[in-house]
Write a structure and sequence with these properties.
This protein has 346 residues and is mainly alpha-helical. The chain has twelve helices and two strands; from the N terminus they run αααααααααααββα. A hairpin with a 2-residue loop joins strand 1 (313-317) and strand 2.
C-alpha cells in the first residue's frame, strides 16, 4: 500500500467497523422482530413493507457515519490545525472493499431468516450509495464549515418537494381525492420555492457565494434520505427502536418517485434562474438525476422479485405463525408473532 494512502485506509477501517457493528446488531444480535417489526400489523419477513426496512438500514447506517465521521474529523481538526482529511473517494472505495463480503455474509447466510441473494445485493448497493453521499457531505462540512451551514438550510428547503409530494399524492390516490393531489403538489413546491427564495435573500444580504446546483441537490438528498431516517430511528419508541419502512421517505411506485426527482430538478432549475447561474451548472445535476432514476427502477425490480407472491408467506394469526402456500424460508421464530404489537400497545 502506498504511504500516502494509509490515512485513507485507516479512515475506511474506522467507518467499516462502525457499519459492521450496526449490521451485526440489526441482523444477528438484536431481536429482529423489534428491529424490523415482524408481525406488526400482520407484516411478514418478506412482504413489501418489511423488505423496504431491510434496505433502509443502508440509509440509517450512512446517516450515522455522516454524524460520527464529521464530529471525529472536526475534533481532530480543532486540535491539529494542519490536519488534512484523506480523499473521501479513496476512503469510500476502501470501505466498499472491506464491507462487501462481511455484510453480504451477514445478510444472506447468518441472519434468521437469511435474505435472498438478490435482496442482499440490493441492500449493499443502497448502503454503498448512502456511504458515498455521507462521506462527500462530511468532507464538505469539515473543509467548508461556514458554507455548509448555508448549504444545509438550502437543502432543507427541498424537503417538502422530496418528501411531501410522494406522500401527499399517494394519500390522495388512496382516498380517491383528486384535489389532495393538486393541493399537496402545489403546497410542497411552494414551500420549497419560498424557502429557497428566503435563502437567496440571505446569501445576497450576507454577501455569500451560492452553492453549486449539485451541492444544493446533494444537500437536499442528504437531509431527506440520510438524516431524517436516522432521526426516525433514534426517536422511535424508546424500548423498541426500529428501522422505518421506506413509505415514510419514498414513493411506493416507480413513476411517482421518478416524478418527485424530476420536480425537484425543476425547482433547482428555477432557483438557478433566480441566482443568475449558468445553464451548464445543471449538467452534474442531470447526470445524478438520471442515475437516481435508474437506481430507483432497479430497486423496485429487486423488491418485486424478492417479495414473492402473497400466497407464499408465513402469516401472523392469533399470535402464531401460520404457513400459507410454500414460502421460500423457514418460520421466522418459535415464539408468538404478535408480541411486537402487544409490546407497542397496538
Amino acid at each position: 500500500m502506498k504511504k500516502h494512502n494509509f490515512p485513507s485506509f485507516f479512515h475506511s477501517v474506522l467507518v467499516s467497523f462502525v457499519v459492521l457493528i450496526l449490521y451485526f446488531l440489526w441482523f444477528i444480535f438484536l431481536d429482529r422482530r423489534f428491529v424490523f417489526l415482524y408481525g406488526h400489523l400482520h407484516s411478514t419477513p418478506f412482504d413489501f413493507r418489511t423488505v423496504s426496512r431491510y434496505f433502509m438500514t443502508g440509509l440509517v447506517a450512512s446517516g450515522t457515519i455522516l454524524i460520527a465521521y464529521t464530529i471525529f474529523n472536526l475534533v481532530i481538526k480543532k486540535v491539529r490545525h494542519s490536519y488534512q482529511l484523506p480523499d473521501w473517494k479513496i476512503v469510500w472505495k476502501y470501505t466498499c472493499l472491506i464491507l462487501a463480503l462481511p455484510i453480504f455474509t451477514i445478510l444472506a447466510f447468518l441472519g434468521k431468516p437469511p435474505l435472498p441473494l438478490l435482496l442482499s445485493f440490493w441492500i449493499l448497493v443502497v448502503l454503498f450509495a448512502g456511504l458515498r453521499l455521507a462521506l462527500y457531505a462530511s468532507n464538505f462540512i469539515v473543509n467548508n464549515f461556514y458554507q455548509s451551514v448555508f448549504a444545509f438550510f438550502d437543502g432543507l428547503a427541498l424537503i417538502p418537494t422530496l418528501l411531501l409530494i410522494p406522500l401527499g399524492i399517494e394519500f390522495g390516490l388512496r382516498k380517491f381525492l383528486p384535489v389532495v393531489l393538486f393541493i399537496a403538489s402545489v403546497a410542497a413546491i411552494g414551500m420549497s420555492l419560498f424557502g429557497l427564495w428566503i435563502m437567496t435573500l440571505l446569501y445576497k444580504r450576507l454577501k455569500q457565494s451560492y452553492p453549486s446546483s449539485l451541492n444544493l441537490f446533494l444537500s437536499g438528498l442528504t437531509t431527506a434520505y440520510l438524516l431524517l431516517p436516522l432521526y426516525h430511528y433514534l426517536t422511535s419508541r424508546p424500548k423498541y427502536i426500529y428501522i422505518s419502512d421506506s413509505a415514510n421517505f419514498f414513493a411506493s411506485s416507480i413513476w411517482l418517485q421518478a416524478i418527485t426527482f424530476l420536480v425537484t430538478f425543476g425547482v433547482i432549475w428555477l432557483v438557478n434562474r433566480w441566482r443568475g447561474k449558468k445553464v451548464n451548472n445543471l449538467d452534474p445535476v442531470k447526470r445524478l438525476l438520471f442515475l437516481l432514476v435508474m437506481v430507483t427502477v432497479f430497486g423496485f425490480l429487486v423488491i418485486w422479485m424478492t417479495t414473492g407472491k402473497e400466497t407464499d408467506v408465513w402469516l401472523c394469526k392469533d399470535d402464531k405463525w401460520v404457513k400459507q402456500g410454500n414460502p421460500p424460508y423457514e418460520k421466522p421464530f418459535d415464539e408468538e408473532c404478535g408480541i411486537i404489537d402487544k409490546a407497542m400497545g397496538l
